[in-house]
Amino acid sequence: MTKTNPPTVSLRPGGLPILAIVGGANGKLEGIPSWTVGTTKKEAVESCAATHCNFRHVDDGGEAGRYKVVQGPNLGLYLDKKDTRIRREATDKSPELRETMDGHLVESVPLCFALYGTEMFAIASKNRAAQKDLDRYSLETVLGKRSIKHKYVRGATVGNPSTGLTRGQLAKIDQMVRSEGLGHILYDHAWRLNPWVLEYACASANDWPGVVDALDAGAKVVTVTVPKFGEYNRVKGAPVIKCPENLGKGTCNTCGLCDVKKRNDHTPQIVVVFEQHDSASHKRKKGNARRAVAGILGKFKAAKALEEGSIVEELQALLPEASKPLTRRIHRYISWFSG
Ligand code: SF4
Hints:
Shape: globular
Mean pLDDT: 89
Bound molecules: iron/sulfur cluster
Strand order of the largest sheet: 10-11-12-15-14-13
Number of domains: 3
Number of helices: 11
Number of strands: 15
Strand content: 15-25%
Distance between the termini: 59 Å
Largest sheet: 6 strands, mixed
Helix content: 25-40%
């Protein structure tokens, strides 16, 4: 007889369709309280599906893993990789550039790391635990357990607020958080559909044209994920700020830039930019290349050569003695670090 898991049921810890925790493993959050939209995986997924966000897997109706045309007559069209070609190979300094077969630039669409990552797996186990102890994942309980060091609550770590909660529910959550003297950081992908959410959340834009639309819609903070930092310093006068956590220079608890209620009519709109860090990202590929040359040259020699800018010379020096397969690997990294 095959064993089946019991169905997860939608529970309402504290009367709200959210599950809250404190002290999660996400380093970016430094253990601050956080909550997910929905008390079951189904509810969380449905809140994202309702946004039509293109960072969802193609099997779920998204476009992740495909390429979006960002130039020319087919602007906005999504293509499979086989219908694109390399314009410029990736190097240590810049990511690969691809284009359509008639030479117009395309950009890869990343996979949502919240919806398809560990946070989503955790919802099922929290749901099972919540069935035995309804209060355990309520926002009230979690706020009561927080540390004195916590200055913020991170909302909607999984799921989308304005499509999974009513305006009244989100207002209640925000009021509960702020009445504790805490800031509240959350992001919404359906701000076009539900502009009311901009009172509570950053507008998540899918691309730079989306950033312009979100600024026009009055978003105080707009966020966008890009293949590589540095494309723009300002958009429509709004400063473009690299997320300090993404740069390894802080956490949400020390930063708080994405708390929209910290901004008012006298402070400028801002754009917060994140660099892609999914498995296809340039950041991840840079890390892989560094680990590979450490394996070839030895950890300390590779680190020194990278610091001194002599990595290509060090790799070239190995070629006369290298086996055929190693020669192929060395050439790959010579070309990576020469670019
Ligand atoms: S800009 Fe600051 S608040 Fe926003 S995600 Fe980065 S670290 Fe967190």
